[in-house]
């Protein structure tokens, strides 16, 4: 195993704002290990929309300097000398979900780290982890989708959207997917959507009602937020569920709950980090996800592996709706 350097490349922010606040450094000190932590040399860092919320100030960082990034794939290069290690050791290929991913090395509590199956090719772990687990928990726990159910997925060509289409296909759902361009709709179909609607140019509600025989869908998976919230409510069937799980277009306006009574609608604002809290949950959901990926030979859709030094371009592309699938960062560049 290569020796561990004194300093590393990484990206920090010292205030919130636009992409100009992202500072790429080449001389950051390596994180110090605490009890029950492992030092991971990150090979691929996953970019997620939530990173832009912490950068912009929509979500509080709790202090500065702050290192963005919530997931990565890499190798354990050192383990703490005390604390519960759950069998993790130097040399293990792992994925992890925690904080502080935008760097060459991260100290991660072992409760947040899992080994990757040997058969999983490089990049697949980082591409699948956070967005795949989000999709899995949304369709299993937030609203359990059954074979033959009609559901609606917004921004279906995005990172999370494509995982939703893939996992819904494996369940046998009738998935109506929305996206803003014909190219994105084609990707949603490739990922497993059974019907597609361009929400920039078509009447989504009319088409959903036509497809479902005027019943509406039993669940809407809405990561777009402000601009689709009312539309999502209008597309639901009686007793349907609106899973409002993100704010890509801005946070939805406050809701008068009486609006839900028209169709006895269930509304949830789920976050992955409240579905996966302890290590047992992380291990069991990750195992289930990677088992599906391997069994169904699911290929992650990777938009681009950006050099970490070009993280501002990655954020601009994501927020500018220029991307499809997963964005990764290579911390060595
Ligand atoms: P995506 O790859 O899906 O990118 C966002 C997509 O949203 C865009 O490509 C675009 O697709 C669509 N979009 C619609 N309106 C806008 C807008 N005004 N500005 C920008 N994008 C817009 O990102 P992620 O997969 O990383 O995240 C998707 C959503 O899921 C986010 O809201 C994120 O916060 C949420 N999320 C929530 C989690 C949770 O635990 N609750 C976990 C993971 C993700 P198009 O051009 O087709 O409209």
Automatic annotation (TrEMBL):
Q: Which UniProt keywords apply?
A: NADP, Oxidoreductase
Q: Which GO terms describe its cellular component?
A: cytosol
User: Coiled-coil segments, which residues?
Assistant: none
| InterPro entries on file | ADH-like_C (IPR013149), ADH-like_N (IPR013154), ER (IPR020843), GroES-like_sf (IPR011032), NAD(P)-bd_dom_sf (IPR036291), QOR-like (IPR047618)
Question: Domain Enoyl reductase (ER), which positions?
Answer: 17-329
- Keyword Cell wall biogenesis/degradation assigned to the entry: answer is no
Q: Keyword Oxidoreductase: yes or no?
A: yes
Enumerate the Pfam families for this protein.
Answer: ADH_N, ADH_zinc_N
One of the record's GO molecular function terms = mRNA 3'-UTR AU-rich region binding
Highest taxon of the lineage: Eukaryota
Protein name (record): Probable quinone oxidoreductase
Q: Which organism is it from?
A: Microdochium bolleyi
What does the record give as the organism's lineage? Eukaryota, Fungi, Dikarya, Ascomycota, Pezizomycotina
């Amino acid at each position: 195993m290569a020796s561990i350097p004194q300093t590393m490349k990484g990206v920090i922010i010292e205030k919130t704002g636009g992409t100009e606040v992202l500072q790429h450094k080449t001389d950051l000190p390596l994180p110090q290990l605490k009890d029950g932590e492992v030092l991971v040399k990150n090979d691929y860092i996953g970019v997620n929309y939530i990173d832009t919320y912490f950068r912009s100030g929509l979500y509080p960082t709790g202090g500065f300097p702050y290192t963005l990034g919530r997931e990565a794939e890499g190798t354990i290069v050192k383990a703490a000398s005390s604390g519960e290690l759950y069998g993790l050791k130097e040399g293990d290929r792992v994925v992890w979900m925690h904080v502080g991913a935008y760097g060459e090395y991260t100290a991660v509590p072992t409760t947040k780290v899992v080994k990757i199956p040997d058969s999983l090719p490089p990049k697949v772990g980082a591409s699948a982890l956070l967005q795949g687990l989000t999709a899995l928990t949304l369709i299993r726990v937030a609203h359990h989708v059954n074979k033959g159910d009609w559901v609606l997925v917004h921004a279906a060509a995005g990172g999370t959207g494509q995982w939703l289409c893939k996992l819904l296909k494996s369940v046998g759902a009738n998935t109506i997917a929305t996206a803003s361009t014909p190219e994105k709709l084609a990707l949603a179909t490739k990922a497993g959507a059974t019907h597609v609607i361009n929400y920039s140019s078509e009447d989504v509600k009319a088409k959903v009602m036509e497809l479902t025989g005027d019943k509406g869908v039993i669940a809407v998976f809405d990561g777009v937020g402000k601009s689709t919230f009312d539309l999502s409510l209008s597309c639901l069937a009686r007793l349907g569920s609106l899973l409002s799980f993100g704010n890509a277009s801005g946070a939805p306006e406050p809701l008068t709950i009486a609006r839900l009574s028209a169709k006895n609608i269930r509304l949830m604002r789920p976050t992955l980090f409240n579905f996966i809290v302890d290590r047992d949950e992380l291990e069991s959901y990750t195992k289930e996800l990677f088992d599906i990926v391997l069994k169904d030979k699911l290929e992650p859709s990777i938009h681009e592996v950006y050099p970490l030094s070009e993280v501002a371009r990655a954020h601009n592309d994501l927020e500018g709706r220029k991307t499809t699938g997963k964005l990764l960062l290579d911390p060595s560049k």
